[in-house]
Design brief:
alpha/beta, 10-stranded mixed beta sheet, 15 strands, 15% strand, globular, binds iron/sulfur cluster
């Protein structure tokens, strides 16, 4: 019997206890100080109590290597099978233009293509997805730029898009800055809205100093009215806060605001936190950006000081939240990147992309759906084949079944190759997560 290469073992933040997690066997345990030290002894080659050894064996922390390899293969096949059944998210960008001039917007690097969305492009999009994803579960997410611009022409196009989505029996999500939600609400109610993602980066001036209108002008109050209107109409809202070092201090305040508004008790309301990071181009002010782990360490500290933040937002901390809420671990994650598998993106110029991270970057185009259909099969295959079994560095990594190899686009930006690593600080996140959800005692 050997120590499983999928064990993740560490000390819980702020505690004398330890945790051990194994995504392949599906076991997770909190170990007291004595057991944790015994496991350390084992790893140093020292003898340990027989009963403890048996326990480790039963849970799949000590394994027969051949049995483990077989289990890994079987779970991998299950993963591929399940993914074939998964719902596909189809992003559509009607325009890259926007009425906001957010301080951190990456889309400023795109020179907008001098071409406008037409009903012919929308028809071609629905015809392509109807054919290409026939028989697959799917839904549409409308993305930008800002899709809900308050002009008669844009409203007409969005109305046409929604009509086509209804005819194709597709649910629709919007990713919007939320400024014109009130003006769009009647139109949105004509379709099957799954979710509207709106961004607030804090309350009042904290938000307004980051997300203002082009040419200046506050946006906070109007977005709040839009969120209220959606919730009144039972349109699900996913509130996103984009965080960096400049606004992290506003998290408790925004949480309290949402609690006071009654949003957090509304079944149609949920939240997410987005890390402002260098996916697209080197931001001039990159010193204000958090690394993934420093963001979550800071959120952890904020939650220690203001526990009510958890009413507003519960960080996943890798698989910790899932384990806490479900009482069991999720299935092993052989691939964290849905690009070209369960996610595709399309834009008004007729181009096809892997996902939202690459959409609009002409050199990342994977083909076209308009004016004619074309596909760059070799590039698509590189995205499709990416998972932890295809990335050589992931092979010996004990985090692989929680990390899933990270984001293909971040990996490509770093190394030039989609099939390379975007490492996630899984162990460090679990240290914080066990502390938050299972306590320090
Ligand atoms: S991307 Fe890095 S952390 Fe993730 S599985 Fe691969 S080697 Fe491990
Ligand atoms: S490349 Fe990154 S952003 Fe795109 S689908 Fe994969 S994980 Fe998501």
């Amino acid at each position: 019997m050997v120590y499983s290469k999928h064990n993740i073992f560490s000390r819980i933040t702020g505690s004398d206890n330890f945790f051990i997690v194994n995504l392949l066997s599906g076991s997770a345990d909190i170990l007291g100080p004595a057991e944790g030290n015994m496991l350390h002894d084992y790893l140093e080659g020292k003898d340990i109590a027989e009963e403890f050894r048996k326990n480790l064996q039963e849970k799949g922390y000590l394994v027969d290597e051949k049995d483990e390899a077989k289990l890994y293969r079987n779970k991998y096949l299950d993963f591929i099978d399940t993914r074939d059944e998964d719902e596909v998210q189809l992003f559509f960008v009607p325009n890259y233009s926007c009425n906001f001039a957010c301080t951190y917007c990456y889309q400023d690097e795109y020179a907008p293509v001098k071409q406008e969305l037409t009903t012919a492009v929308i028809d071609a999009f629905f015809s392509y997805v109807g054919h290409e994803f026939a028989g697959q579960k799917k839904y549409l997410t409308v993305f930008g730029g800002e899709p809900l611009l308050n002009s008669p022409k844009q409203k007409e196009l969005i109305a046409y898009l929604l009509k086509q989505a209804n005819e194709s029996n597709l649910e629709v999500c919007f990713v919007t800055n939320g400024y014109s939600l009130v003006e769009y609400i009647d139109l949105l109610r004509t379709s099957r809205i799954r979710e509207i993602q709106v961004t607030l980066d804090g309350i009042g001036i904290v938000h307004d100093s980051r997300r203002f209108l082009k040419g200046g002008g506050a946006t906070f109050e109007k977005i709040v009215s839009g969120i209220d209107a959606c919730l009144r109409m039972r349109l699900p809202v996913n509130l996103r806060m984009v965080i960096d070092k400049e606004n992290i201090q506003g998290l408790p305040e925004l949480a309290q605001f949402a609690i006071d508004k009654g949003w957090t008790k509304n079944e149609f309301f949920k939240t997410q936190i987005g890390r402002n990071y260098e996916l697209h181009h080197c931001q001039a002010t990159s010193e204000k950006l958090f690394s993934r782990i420093s963001l979550y360490e800071t959120i952890y500290q904020q939650i220690q000081k203001h526990p009510y933040i958890l009413e507003f937002y519960k960080p996943a901390y890798s698989v910790s939240k899932f384990l806490f809420e479900n009482g069991s671990l999720p299935d092993p994650l052989f691939d964290a990147c849905p690009a070209c598998k369960t996610e595709w993106a399309f834009d008004y110029t007729g181009h096809i992309f892997s996902c939202t991270a690459t959409v609009g970057k002409t050199d990342e185009s994977l083909g076209t759906f308009y004016p004619e259909v074309s596909r760059k099969d070799e590039l698509i295959a590189a995205w499709e084949n990416r998972d932890v079994t295809a990335i050589s560095e992931c092979f010996g990594c004990s985090m692989q079944l929680a990390c899933g190899g990270g984001c293909g686009s971040v990996a490509k930006n770093r190394s030039g190759n989609v099939c390379s690593t975007d490492c996630r600080p899984v162990k460090e996140l679990l240290e914080l997560g066990f502390s938050t959800y299972f306590g320090k005692a």
